[in-house]
Amino acid sequence: MNAKVKSTLVYGGSVAVGLVSGFFGGGGGMLCVPLLQFRGLDAKRAHATALLVILPICIASSIVYIVNGYFDGTAVLCACIGVVAGGAVGAAALDKLNGATISVIFALLMMAIGLKLVIA
Question: Minimal CA–CA distance to 34: which of 16, 60, 61?
Answer without folding.
Answer: 16
